[in-house]
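Dear colleague,

Following up on Tuesday's group meeting, I ran the structure prediction for the two-component complex that the binding team flagged. I've pasted the input sequences exactly as they went in, so you can double-check that nothing got truncated or mislabelled along the way. The structure tokens for the whole assembly follow below. Feel free to forward this to whoever is handling the docking comparison.

Inputs:
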Amino acid sequence: MTTWRSLFERAEDYDVGVEDVEKALASRRDD
Amino acid sequence: MTDVSPARVVADADVLAADLFVDGGAREALDHVRSHSWVELVVSEALLEDATEVIARLADDDLAADWRARVEAAATLVEHPRGDHPALAAAYHGEAAHVLTYDEQLRSARTGMELKERVDVSVKEPQAFARLFDAERLYPTAVGGEYPGPDQDPRA
């Protein structure tokens, strides 16, 4: 099982902020 | 109105994804959940699909799939009708007292009043939940006895 620690470290490779997440979710839910 | 549990928490898909990507309020809030075996994260298929899609769009499919597998292993899955708002419906059907979201509309006073008529749920920004959540105060009623402190590694 992948650990949260490992997932967080992998996610650091992407420059993603809260606003990016909000926009992506709004876009998906608008589809 | 159903009996909700203050130890059950729903995180909307934006908070679930923000927890993964940002070392901030969402992670701080969900660390409270991950640190205590008796605090449940409640999810639904629709919530997981939304968050997985967001993660795949912003990162890659492998990370999204691994994230989903990790959440599924830890969370309580509830079912609700398609078309309902995933976070609110998961809270209603999962009898959760807390919904965490960055969606201002969902946190608005009007939405709050409308919700209170149907379900006793508190909709908060994750930062506010992280600040207000008091495991020591909640433990005697949620579990019983004296709070032993966190019982899980939030990074495991």
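The CA atoms of residues 19 and 27 of chain A lie 12 Å apart.

Cheers,
M.
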